[in-house]
Amino acid sequence: MTNTQPRPESMSASQLSSQDFLLAAKQAEIHSLKQLELSCGLVTHVTALIHELQRERGLSNIYLVSRGSRGGDTRAHQLGLSTFAVDAFREALGSLELNSMTSAATLLNRIAVVLHRLDSLDALRQQVNAREIAAANNTDEYNQLIADLLALIFEAADISGDPQITQALVAMFNFLQGKEYAGQERAWGVIGFSAGEFSKNIIDRLNGLQYAQQRCLDIFSDVASTDALHCWESQTNDSSYSELARMRQMIRRYEPGEQLPTTMAEIWYELTTHRIDAMQRCEQRLAQELLTLCEAKIDAAEMDLQQHHRQLATLSDTVPLSSLGDEDDNADTTLNIGPGVNVRVARSIFDLVQHQAERLRELNDALGQARQTLEERKLIDKAKGILIKSRNITEEQAYRQLREAAMSNNKRMVDVAANVISVAEMLDG
């Protein structure tokens, strides 16, 4: 005999039981995980698109600073790869069930912003083709687009209701953010070497970007899986890293007025690209790990649901819920069982409900820990916004001021950010 109880939505309020809500809770969990799986699938396309845009940004700068004499053919090939990645991203958006994403308003808004920027990408490329935009402005345009794409990953982590998936997304976000800072370092270094000289502003930018990279990789190391960490560590054992370190040192020691060979731009680009490509290999590992984790979570939840169905069906088949009398005169009265309900059945259902409640409590506790890094990021972003508005500075300058304040006072950036927010709120009050 199978369990033929009607679905909760077809029942009146008086007919609904604890079993109905227990099964509905598990079904809701599965639905949430499947939506999260779609979001994580989108994230993998976001990572691929970011990588192609990072390469396009660097090659566009070489083309601009050299006045079109270098990097033209390579850039033309890269434009094709970037366009393919854009099309794949747009196609992935079609798999999202927008009507079901009721708790993802911020994520959906971020997607709208990204699509708007992607619509303007062709115009930016035309400006580069005609050399009607400065390399610095070109870099800023690509930086903003990539920042908006990274924000999609951040929002996906923020709406995740599973601690392990949240932690995997946090690891991926910080790794990709570090990779983006590496890409910006490549872009600004190309500008300096292509021009044969470095301004103090560019040197300061490069130093700040190196610090920011390390900060992101430190956070990644704290939350990433063992396999992900091993992947990154295995990629860093390479002689090109020592060559890159030497070129970084050359930039730090640069004296105003000194002239550098412009051919070093290609060497810098190759070394930094080698590092970024190594990061992409780990990025692909992180993306696959994320999708595998989503699939495993859904499989486990569906198995739990089937087990609940079997247990409840067995109970209803062997002992009717409305059987008269109690089997155990010494039954646990804390169950608050009404007259005429079988004690063993009620206790079995009670145990299932308690087990589910305890599991959800543990998940919420773990989720809180996994989201701590996200909350710290929000504080830093809020503090940056305050500095940008109050001091009329750029986002990069605001970040640099927070970083320098943290370093000079031997504090964490999040603590400095919290102080900035506290002072601002006090002044507003």
Written overview of the protein:
This protein has 429 residues and is mainly α. The protein contains 14 helices and no strands. The protein folds into 2 domains: 38-297, no CATH class; 373-428, Winged helix-like DNA-binding domain superfamily/Winged helix DNA-binding domain (Arc Repressor Mutant, subunit A, Orthogonal Bundle), CATH 1.10.10. It has helices spanning 18-65, 72-93, 105-119, 121-129, 135-159, 163-195, 200-223, 226-235, 239-252, 264-318, 343-370, 372-391, 395-408, 413-428. α1 runs antiparallel to α2, α6 runs parallel beside α11 and α12 crosses α14 (413-428). It starts with 17 loop residues before the first helix and ends with a helix. Mean pLDDT is 79; it is low at 1-6, 319-329 and 331-343.
Structural class call reads mainly alpha
- How many domains is the backbone divided into? 2
Number of helices: 14
Mean pLDDT: 79
Helicity range of the residues? over 70%
Alpha-carbon distance between the termini?
A: 68 Å
Order of helices and strands: HHHHHHHHHHHHHH
Question: How big is the Rg?
Answer: 28 Å
Relevant terms:
429 residues, Arc Repressor Mutant, subunit A, 14 helices, 0% strand
SSE layout and pairings?
Blueprint: H1 18-65, H2 72-93, H3 105-119, H4 121-129, H5 135-159, H6 163-195, H7 200-223, H8 226-235, H9 239-252, H10 264-318, H11 343-370, H12 372-391, H13 395-408, H14 413-428
Helix pairs in contact: 1-2, 1-5, 1-6, 1-10, 3-5, 5-6, 6-7, 6-10, 6-11, 8-10, 9-10, 10-11, 12-13, 12-14, 13-14
